[in-house]
Amino acid sequence: MNPEPGEFTSLLTPEEIAALRAAGRPRRWERGTTVMTEGDTSDWVLVLTEGRVKCSSHTSSGTEVVLAIRGPGALIGEMSSIDGWPRSATVAALEPIEGIVVQDFPAYLREHGRVAVLLMQLVTEKLRDADRKRIEYGAFDTTGRVATRLIELAERYGEKTSTGVRVALPLSQDELAGWTGASREAVSKALRSLRDRGLIETGRRRVIIHDLEGLRKRAR
């Protein structure tokens, strides 16, 4: 297991990870598979070990709103496991994924008090991130929000190349639009604007950032 920095399992000791594995069972999903569905009443959690997923919700009109992109080490579905409420988001595999399914996560937390405190900190961090995104929607134009999301992707998933930073995450423009709270047309226009400035290069499900600092300035 090679968790991304800041994700759930990156904060655990080897003993705590071993106990978590013992409490669950491994499982795989193919790319495009729905892992969890918004509104379901299941209460198991997924500890992601390989691959990335998107967490999204749908409006009454059917528009997809992407809430987060999560990678190796992430804990998925913890809120429903703890409070017993229906799933608040749909989780889909952006690429082939592997993980550990834990049915009785609260029992694990009762036996590992330190982990329960860490989980409280992670939940608080998620709430703060949600607040930041709400502020972005009111303060930034579409291009600024797109630039902000691209920076986040570059920092978390970017691969350095001779010409910049390549974002290998397979996000479509529709998914990027759902993540920025804008229409596909507005996102397409924003990407064109960033390309015209020489900040990025785009292709099918990939982005190469040529000027990360310039992108940060545009985001601000």
Explain what the structure shows.
By secondary structure, this protein is an alpha+beta fold. Helices cover 43% and strands 25% of the residues. It folds into two domains: 8-138, Sandwich (Jelly Rolls); 140-219, Winged helix-like DNA-binding domain superfamily/Winged helix DNA-binding domain (Arc Repressor Mutant, subunit A), CATH 1.10.10.10. It has eight helices and twelve strands. The protein has a four-stranded antiparallel sheet with strand order 1-8-3-6. Helix 5 crosses helix 7.
Features:
43% helix; 220 residues; four-stranded antiparallel β-sheet; Arc Repressor Mutant, subunit A; Jelly Rolls; alpha+beta
List the helices and strands and how they pair.
Elements lengths: L13 H10 E6 L4 E3 L8 E6 L2 E6 L5 E7 L4 E2 L1 H6 L6 E4 L3 E6 L2 H7 L1 H27 L2 H16 E4 L2 E4 L5 H8 L3 H13 L3 E4 L2 E4 L2 H8 L1
Antiparallel strand pairs: 1-8, 2-7, 3-6, 3-8, 4-5, 4-7, 9-10, 10-12, 11-12
How many structural domains? 2
The succession of helices and strands, N to C, reads: HEEEEEEHEEHHHEEHHEEH
Strand fraction: 25-35%
Query: How would you describe the shape?
Result: globular
CATH class category name of the largest domain: Mainly Beta
* CATH fold call of the largest domain: Jelly Rolls
Distance between the termini: 35 Å
Based on CA atoms alone, the radius of gyration comes out at 18 Å
Domain HTH crp-type: 140-213
Domain Cyclic nucleotide-binding: 8-93
Protein name: CRP-like cAMP-binding protein
Organism: Nonomuraea endophytica
